[in-house]
Amino acid sequence: MMMDYETEFSDNQAITVSAPSDHVIKSVEGRLGEGEPVEVFAEIGEDFAAVGAATLVVGIETDDNEGFASPTTVYQTGAISKDTLKAGYKIPLPPLPDNLEEFVRLYFTVATGPMTAGKIDAGLVLDKTNNIHGFANQYGQL
Predict the structure, then answer these.
(1) Domain boundaries, the chain
(2) Quick one: three-class SS letters along the chain?
(3) Cys-Cys crosslink for 101: which of 11, 44, 64, 92, Cβ 3.0 to 4.6 Å?
(4) Under CATH, to which class is 5-138 assigned?
(5) pTM to 2 decimal places
């Protein structure tokens, strides 16, 4: 997987209460999700913890302004239990849809919180390596 700063929503971002991703990504004229699918990833970097039974919902939002004055949610996960949010867990997110406005971000909603610990890395996947050994075996090369 290839990443760079310009395609990063969160870099070890601490999530204890509901909050947007640290970074907003500009979609050139809303075309970020057009053509080849642009994969979104979110991975837990540090175990989440809370006093109660807290959950996290991750949403993909878009807006026509960088301040997200009137965001539109284009995707939202179900509630994910703090017990599932352990280091290395990859939150399943779909590729970006075609109907984006100019700016895109993630929004993390904490329910029954606050969380007392937990960090996330998230962004767009520019180049995903898919099973290189399967490819090599299929074509008789390694």
Answers:
(1) 5-138
(2) CECCHHHEEEEEEECCCCEECCCCEECHHHCCCCCCCCEEEEEEEEEEEECCCCEEEEEEEEECCCCCCCCEEEEECCCEECCCCCCCCECCCCCCCCCCCCEEEEEEEEECCCEEEEEEEEEEECECCCCHHHHHHHCCCC
(3) 64
(4) mainly beta
(5) 0.83
